[in-house]
Amino acid sequence: MSKETWTAVDRYFTDMLVPHDPALDAALQDNAGAGLPPIDVAPNQGKLLHLLAQIQGARTILEIGTLGGYSTIWLARALPADGRLITLEADPKHAEVARKNIARAGLDHIVEIRLGQALDSLAQLDEEGHGPFDLFFIDADKQSNPDYFQWALNHSRKGSLIITDNVVRNGKVVDETSTDPSIIGVRRFTELVASEPRVSATALQTVGSKGYDGFAIAVVTEDK
Predict the structure, then answer these.
(1) Can you list the positions of beta strands (E) in the chain?
(2) How many CB atoms lie within 10 A of CB 112?
(3) How many CA atoms lie within 13 A of 106 on its CB side?
(4) I want to staple 132 with a disulfide (CB 3.0 to 4.6 A). Which of 93, 119, 157, 207 is the partner?
């Protein structure tokens, strides 16, 4: 099977199950126009994030890695009127584009973008006493995934979801000799999740318009 087939299948299900949305379509157009890397989640994956947040009944969400705010919009739309989403972005240009996209979607009253290196922003959130969060979406630099997961676990509650994107890396995750920092980070993250008794987790491979990758999802099974 080829990426063309995967993309055609994605398009079929997206056309059937994920209706076009002006704010989301405009976000992708503006991201491309601003020269942001085309690494947003696919529409059907964005809908999956939305559904998971709804199923979980999330009221507070932390997203690590904003890019242009496409996944942020999907997640924020699953929140109740008094919900709150904090998203962390290191690149000022990305954050500027995301702010415009989120405002156009009418979500700037429940979404806060924190600009800076994610680990620094997490330390600041800690100092401010944020948490526990109901759902975490980790989609930033992969070498820091172990640190992001540990922070999420320490700021969760029983029932919190921790979703981590891009864990398959075109299948390279199985290469134990890899010197790629992203592969090393994903493998260390997976080992950490596997050894953590406070979560129940799995990982899924995905193919589609974004190629061959996958995500991990963990549910926190006990309070810290």
Answers:
(1) 60-64, 84-89, 111-115, 135-138, 161-165, 199-208, 211-220
(2) 12
(3) 5
(4) 157
CATH number at residue 154: 3.40.50.150
Task: Estimate to the nearest angstrom the gap between the alpha carbon of 136 and the chain centroid.
Answer: 7
Q: At what angle do helices 181-195 and 145-154 cross, to 10 degrees?
A: 30
pTM beyond 0.90: the answer is: yes
In one letter, which amino acid is 201? A
CB atoms within 10 A of CB 196: 16
Question: 137 - beta bridge partners?
Answer: 63, 163
Q: Which of 193, 196, 202, 198 shows the shortest CA–CA distance to 221?
A: 198
The domain in which residue 131 lies consists of 3-220
pLDDT at 52 over 80: yes
